[in-house]
Design brief:
Layout (H helix, E strand, L loop, with lengths): L3 H12 L7 H14 L7 E2 L10 E6 L9 E8 L4 E3 L9 E6 L9
Antiparallel strand pairs: 1-5, 2-3, 2-5, 3-4
C-alpha cells in the first residue's frame, strides 16, 4: 500500500524540476488524479460519489428493521444503469456507502 501524502509531495517536488516536453503538464494531471482518490480503505458516502467501474465493491447497508445496525455486503455498481446490481430490488435504496473491494491474499512463497 502506498502513502498518499508522500506520493503527492513527491509529485509536487518533481513538478518543480521537470518542465520540458510536456512532462510538467502530465505531472499536473497525475497529481490531480491522485488527489481526487479517497484515502486507502476509507468508506465513500453514496451521496458524495458513486463508483466509476462496473466491479464488485464493499457496501454499507442500512438495516431493514428497527433496532439492527448497519452491515457490510459485497455488491456490484452498474454505472450505465446508474444503480447497484443485485437480486433484491428493495435493497437498492439501503446502500449508504461503498469502498473498493481489496485484492485477495496471494500468500508468500
Amino acid at each position: 500500500m502506498i502513502d498518499e501524502k508522500e506520493l503527492i509531495e513527491e509529485l509536487k517536488h518533481m513538478m518543480g524540476h521537470y518542465f520540458r516536453d510536456g512532462l510538467y503538464v502530465n505531472l499536473k494531471a497525475v497529481l490531480r488524479i491522485v488527489q481526487s482518490q479517497p484515502p486507502a480503505d476509507q468508506w465513500i458516502p453514496c451521496s458524495e460519489r458513486l463508483p466509476v467501474y462496473y466491479d464488485w465493491h464493499h457496501v454499507t447497508v442500512k438495516p431493514f428493521y428497527e433496532g439492527r445496525g448497519n452491515y457490510v455486503a459485497v455488491e456490484r455498481y452498474d454505472r450505465i444503469k446508474g444503480e447497484w446490481s443485485f437480486h433484491e430490488r428493495a435493497y437498492k435504496d439501503k446502500i449508504i456507502a461503498w469502498k473498493p473491494k481489496p485484492e485477495p491474499y496471494e500468500g508468500v512463497e
